[in-house]
Design goal:
The protein is of the alpha+beta class and 355 residues long. The protein contains ten helices and seven strands. The protein folds into two domains: 144 residues, no CATH class; 159 residues, Histidine kinase-like ATPase, C-terminal domain (Heat Shock Protein 90), CATH 3.30.565.
Length: 355
């Protein structure tokens, strides 16, 4: 269906746009036949609306003959032929309208004085039809551009979601390998704790799988996953690992990307606590700062221990997820100062799309 016909309001605007042409046609009748303006308008305005209806057919011709797929000669012949046919139809309908008005005494002299059809009106009708075709080509080009933009946007969204899924899929195996290594270390040293760690790991994996179906989860749920992970690592490190989690009241239900903090906490233990003979601390702090949610992960480090290859994988994962999910609305920075490493995430509190 023609897009104008599909929307009554748009159709009314379209027909209204043709009324000035009806006024010009009436003026031509007044000039040519010296008839009163009132009668000229009664004859001319309907003729312009008739041409408006006929010109709608150019839409279908333009769709059937796209500019980029047709030879110009063929295109010109097709449109000139269609313009001639439409102008002939228009004048025929005009004569019918004049015939309907002729029996009325008021219009008898006026209709007799107007020459329908006439060569001038015929060519004018052709030009108007060709102009309508040009406008329809512009509309089609605009729609094609909008469709290209829409498809491009959808492809960008799909690519973004695919990359986010790939980044999130890196979190689970990496964490699982480290946890299994922890269990392996306890199997011979402390079988009882190894069994306890297996139970804790099972609970954590179950919670992670449940949370992993959602792009965003409440901050309280994310912190609960972190606590489960720290409970597992506490069995491995014992008193060497001191952990603390603080959440400012009122922000517990703020949405955050699922498993966003997991790589940071894991990085704190793998590249921080594990290198400290006397152990150290891992501290998480969540608070509101205006319209932003600030998440901070701090941990002890050995300033003299060289950084291992791949130690920045988890941090880069977090950075990419934030960029893909929030663009410039989220921030992520890290800071190393003496025997302390700090990672800070800033999220918009109105976050509505996930990682």
């Amino acid at each position: 269906m023609h897009p104008i016909l599909a929307k009554p309001r748009l159709l009314a605007l379209y027909l209204g746009g043709w009324l000035p042409l009806g006024g010009l046609l009436a003026a031509a009748f007044v000039q040519q036949a010296s008839i009163p303006w009132g009668e000229a308008l009664v004859i001319g305005l309907p003729l312009s609306l008739i041409h408006a209806s006929v010109s709608l057919a150019s839409w279908y011709l333009c769709k059937a003959l796209p500019l980029h797929r047709q030879q110009m000669v063929r295109l010109a012949v097709a449109h000139v032929g269609a313009a001639a046919a439409s102008s002939a139809l228009w004048l025929a309908l005009g004569r019918l309208w004049a015939a309907l008005l002729a029996p009325r005494p008021t219009f008898a002299d006026s209709v007799a004085a107007i020459q329908l059809p006439s060569p001038v009106l015929f060519f004018a009708g052709m030009l108007v039809f060709l102009f309508a075709a040009a406008v329809h080509y512009l509309i089609l080009a605009f729609e094609a551009s909008r469709e290209t933009e829409r498809v491009g946007f959808e492809l960008q969204v799909l690519a973004r979601d695919a990359e986010l899924r790939a980044l999130r899929s890196q979190v689970d195996p990496h964490f699982l390998f480290n946890s299994l290594n922890s269990i392996s270390a306890l199997v011979t040293a402390d079988p009882k704790q190894a069994r306890q760690m297996c139970v804790l790991l099972s609970d954590l994996l179950r919670s992670s799988l449940r949370a992993g179906t959602e792009a965003m989860i409440p901050l309280a749920d994310e912190m609960a996953l972190v606590r489960q992970y720290l409970a597992i690592e506490s069995l491995r490190f014992g008193d060497r690992l001191q952990s603390e989690i603080q959440i400012e009241p009122g922000i517990e239900m703020s949405p955050v990307p699922t498993l966003l903090l997991q790589p940071l906490v894991e990085n704190s233990i793998t590249h921080g606590i594990s290198h400290l003979v006397e152990g150290g601390f891992v501290r998480l702090d969540a608070k509101r700062n205006g319209v932003a949610l600030v998440l901070v992960v701090e941990n002890s480090i050995d300033a003299e221990t060289p950084r291992q290859a791949g130690s920045g994988t988890g941090l880069e994962n977090v950075r990419k997820r934030l960029q893909l999910s929030f663009g410039g609305r989220a921030g992520f920075r890290t800071e190393e100062s003496g025997e302390r490493f700090r990672a800070e995430i800033t999220l918009p509190l109105d976050a509505s799309h996930g990682a």
